[in-house]
């Protein structure tokens, strides 16, 4: 794994008045999972009708491989975990939601969700030869 290129984090955050998007993402990642952001890249946005016509912005956030220990704030998040490329690649192949009684499976957000787009982009970046990875 190369420094600051192979780790991405996906998180929903709320900004504070006067903060830039970059400051908001860095603060929220530090508060909610104890990670220090080393780099951000914008992906896309998506309309979000709840609670009042809003939108979501998708970013890839890189963290230092030397500091990947998650420290979850359980008042903010139920869970936070790292997934391997193999786990994500398998999850992208799952076409139907698991039914009650089925063995546990990693179920990703639907294709129209910005979270799915971020995960798919990350997977594509990991599968490219190193000399073709765009920064």
From TrEMBL:
<dbReference type="InterPro" id="IPR000086">
    <property type="entry name" value="NUDIX_hydrolase_dom"/>
</dbReference>
<dbReference type="GO" id="GO:0046872">
    <property type="term" value="F:metal ion binding"/>
</dbReference>
<dbReference type="InterPro" id="IPR049734">
    <property type="entry name" value="NudC-like_C"/>
</dbReference>
<keyword id="KW-0520">NAD</keyword>
<keyword id="KW-0378">Hydrolase</keyword>
<dbReference type="Pfam" id="PF00293">
    <property type="entry name" value="NUDIX"/>
</dbReference>
<dbReference type="GO" id="GO:0016787">
    <property type="term" value="F:hydrolase activity"/>
</dbReference>
<keyword id="KW-0479">Metal-binding</keyword>
<protein>
    <recommendedName>
        <fullName>NAD(+) diphosphatase</fullName>
        <ecNumber>3.6.1.22</ecNumber>
    </recommendedName>
</protein>
<feature type="domain" description="Nudix hydrolase">
    <location>
        <begin position="1"/>
        <end position="107"/>
    </location>
</feature>
<keyword id="KW-0460">Magnesium</keyword>
<dbReference type="InterPro" id="IPR015797">
    <property type="entry name" value="NUDIX_hydrolase-like_dom_sf"/>
</dbReference>
